[in-house]
Description:
This protein has helices at 2-14, 30-33, 41-53, 70-76, 283-286, 313-343, 358-366, 390-398, and strands at residues 23-24, 80-81, 102-109, 112-119, 146-147, 152-155, 159-163, 165-166, 178-180, 186-188, 191-195, 200-209, 215-225, 229-235, 240-245, 251-252, 257-259, 264-266, 272-273, 277-282, 296-300, 306-311, 349-355, 370-372, 381-387. By secondary structure, the protein is α+β, with helices and mostly antiparallel strands. The strands form nine sheets. It has a five-stranded mixed β-sheet, with no helix packed on it. The protein has a four-stranded antiparallel β-sheet with strand order 18-17-21-22. The relative contact order is 0.07.
Amino acid sequence: MKKIICLIFFVLNCFPVFAFALVNINTASSEELDTLPEIGPATATKIITYRTTTPFLVIEDIMKVSGIKEATFAKIKDLITVGDVSGGGTSGSTDDNDDTTSTSTATTTSNTTTTSYSSGGGGGGALSTHSDPESLTDYDPANPKIGAGRTRLAIVKTPVNFFASNDSRSDWNESSFIWTFGDGAVASGKKVSHAYEFSGNYNVVLNAKTNNNLSAVSRTTINVVEPELKISEVNPKLGFVEIENFGNSEKNINGWILKTASSTYIFPTDTIISKQSKIKFSTKNLGLVLAPVGDRVSLLSGDGTEFGRLAVAGNINNIKIKELKQKLNLLKQKLSEINNEEADGGVVAIAEPVILSEEKREKIVEQNLVSPKQTDATSTDIVINKPKGWLSNVVERIF
Length: 399
């Protein structure tokens, strides 16, 4: 037994490389990083996030990650490596305006990493004896990164806010952030706003440069749809204005306007109405003043285009009643004229020839319902005088 223990001790001392494998902080997974002393899941995530934009060039760079101080580094420095940061050859970034290529060479000896750089397409540089503890470098070889934001949904004539994100480099030239919105419009700056006049799917492209003339580009898309909005109800008694979205997508009415004869309200950012739904907005919250008689509420886009108008609910009935009263007065007047004509003995008749027997003819004549038709001496034709009904007279005179 004693011989076996001695053998194991001998192997571990003579061949320490087999005792454990160094953790490559440029490629290790979250679980692998979590095995290091004082590196939990949260810190492992920070390490991975940091290296996506700025690879670790030497193991000391891990102290640039938030939460990792010298005390933690002292415990893990013998357990970590940065690996071959050159990626097996040359690496760098090129664009239409910059053909400069950065190369890097890394050499790992035991647990200490030394990295040297050269620019202009040359090979690995020599080790430096400079006194500063920082690595020798011409410029940061990491490519600059920017983002134009996620895919968006918007409605026509409504402002859309765009904000450019970028990595932690300190040499960004903010005036070089140029947005093209896909509809012919262009704007500059990290934060811009744009409203589309027509519906469609637009490609938005963001270009930017650093002060060192390194370029970056990003793009996103925005789907612009028709408003499909209307004012469905206005009720001053209950104190609300109801807006209906009758489209098949949600609508953000940021910057839209409700307007009455004496007040105006502008909807704030991210006022969203779900598809195929109605929302009642309290006039108290909106600060809208609704006149009791004759007022109208209009729905306008941010540029003042009207997309709907509705009368105050209480006034609709008043208007209809007034119109009906006018029509009834006209009808009464016509009926009065008809009654006056009948009182004056006026008779309106429709002549319809009929043939009756002599006996029936005499009885009808006696009752003054008919008059003989004097076509010839032997004719038995008569005309029955049928007075028109009052409804026929009303229709004739009004229509």
